[in-house]
Amino acid sequence: MRVTHPRLLRALRAGVRFAEAERTFVVQIGPFRGWLDVEDTAFFVEAYAPESGEVELSDRTREPLDTASLSADADDALRCTVKARFAARFTRSAQAELLAAVELDGDRIVVGYYDLRDPPSGVSADGFDPSEGHKSHRDELLGAWFGDRTTARTVVAATAHPSGDLRIDLDDGTALEILPMSIADDDEFWRLFEVGGPHVVGGGWGMERQGE
Fold first, then answer.
1. Per-residue pLDDT reduced to its tens digit, 66-89
2. pTM greater than the 0.85 cutoff
3. SS (H, E, C) the chain
């Protein structure tokens, strides 16, 4: 049976436990308890907190992210080990939160959305508020990425997924990746403009061309 009601699904996921005595997963909701036949993962990562490096799991517990266990499945969904032994799959919003906070070098992400919460190098984080118009770490990283270029980068390819993910490849080997952080049907995630032509729009409802 597939459960689609959001509140019921959250309650069922929150009630998942591993019964050591029976050596199986169970769902416990109040006084009611039933065995759980797990086809994929019993636990899900519902959120990632970049400030603490912790993940919030579907059973409403929190723990540090085991970065060494991170992997991607055939659907490009991230997975990790939780509770020291069980596999957990990231929800789309949690995966977007994690990837937005990643910052690497070389073949890597150079700037993420959450960098705007942090001050630039050499500035104290005490009392820092990006909403007051101060330069953020994100501004610093973007400035370094643009560097001293005198010409604009050229888009060589754009790939969109029905889930709302968008990747734009540029002529210098870099890419812009957009990962939705919402599942609302009426949310617009991105919009590509064609000069004098229609727009390609991605949102919670899928993708469509507008203005034709």
1. 888 988 887 778 899 999 889 999
2. no
3. CCCCCHHHHHHHHHCEEEECCCCEEEEEECCEEEECCCCCCCEEEEEEECCCCEEEECCCCEEECCHHHCEECCCCCEEEEECCCEEEEECHHHHHHHHHHCCCCCCCCCCCHHHHHCCCCCCCCCCCCHHHCCCCHHHHHHHHHHCCCCCCCCEEEEEECCCCCEEEEECCCCEEEECCCCCCCCCEEEEEECCCCCEEEEECCEEEEECC
